[in-house]
Amino acid sequence: MIPALVTLLVFQLFGEVVTRGLGLPLPGPVLGMVALVLTMLAFPKLAAAVRPTAQGLLAHLSLLFVPAGVGVVAHLGVLRQEGAALMLALIVSTVAAIAVGALTFTAVARLAEGRKNG
Amino acid sequence: MADAALIWSYLTREPLLWLTATLIAYWVGDAAFRASGRKPYVNPVLIAVAALALVLKGTGTPYATYFEGAQFVHFMLGPATVALALPLYTNLAQVRRAAFPMLAALLAGSLTAILSALAIARALGVDASVLSALAPKSATAPVAIGIAERMGGSPTLAAVLVLTTGIIGAVVATPLLNLLRITDWRARGFATGVAAHGIGTARAFQVNETAGSFAGIGMGLNAVLTALIAPPLLALFL
Question: Which of A52, A80, B90, B149, CA to CA, is 20 to 30 A from B53?
Fold first, then answer.
């Protein structure tokens, strides 16, 4: 568990240092995640070593955003004023994104697979 | 017997109380979620957040005091984001097999989510400072919080918008995709993961195993894509 935790923290640290150093708009942990995928492709043994700890952490992923969520108490004013507009934006954009994403997937899959079969 | 006020003043100075309260609130929320048969609208995080918000209001505790204790949980978001590398790595073979449909659906879904949300909110007069918390709302929470922070938005508002998006996605996905007569489980799962991150992915796994793993891939890829495109897209609306 300690080597796995060290691996996750080292990749996060790498991501934070590089994104801040180069002034990238990317969050450090996202770069750390991409770097870890690439490293695991080169050294598949690393994936096996990290797996139990990573799975344990991801199983409780939703717990981790409770503290940020409780911050809603600081935004009750914003939500009272703009809550309806935000809700409409969230509903329409989520419905549109699912529909567009799924239709695009099936259309391109039909093209790609049709070409393979034809 | 010590004075109750003294004990309370000790508790308000130490992180122990609010760390414990955060875990208990989530435990209760998760138990309610399981008892409901894992209904997407009985979201454990939403329950925990609502309960803690009420307790903070009831006890007159400022958010900063609460966060002293909760920061230990919050800190783990970073390592958990890095840990998302594992499911992405595990599913890479599937990604390669359906690379074209996935990339097209990822781009189309992610752009639609960000642009339509920003356009509607702006048209309805939502404040510019709120837009930077809204832009990354389809990305998974740890990533969206990081993106909002980098763009000068409020991370806590981003967390609330992300949660709401996930719940909407989980509730509408199945009826919406049935209405569109989409029967490909890969397409259904992938689009749900892109638009509604982890909560959508959990819902997809309940419906179908293939849909679930494609939703997980969609969530992972959109975390990276949103981090890259949200800042330039937001700039168009400011």
Answer: B149
Q: Report the distance separating Cα B133 and Cα B135, nearest Å.
A: 6
The answer to whether B169 and A91 are in contact (CB under 8 A) is no
Name A1's Cβ contacts closer than 8 Å, sequence gap at least 6. Answer: A52, A53
Distance CA B4, CA B12 (A): 12
In whole angstroms, what separates CA A48 from the centre of its chain? Answer: 21
Tell me, rounded to whole angstroms, the distance of Cα A21 from its chain centroid: 22
Report the C-alpha gap between B195 and B139 in whole angstroms: 8
Comparing CB atoms, the residue among A51, A55, A86 nearest residue B121 is A86
Encoded tokens for B99: 């690379």
Other beta carbons within 10 angstroms of residue B96's beta carbon come to 9
Q: What is the pTM of this model?
A: 0.84
Q: Which of B63, B98, B194 sits opposite A101 (nearest CB)?
A: B194
Contacts of B178 (CB under 8 A, 6+ apart): none
| Closest residue in B to A100 (Cα–Cα) | B109
CA-based nearest residue to B142, from A58, A6, A2: A58
Choose the closest CB to B49 out of A30, A50, A72: A72
Span B118-144, pLDDT tens digits: 999 999 999 988 999 999 999 988 889
Q: What is the CA radius of gyration of chain B?
A: 19
Q: What is the ipTM of this complex?
A: 0.88
How far is the alpha carbon of A118 from chain B, nearest alpha carbon, in Å? 17
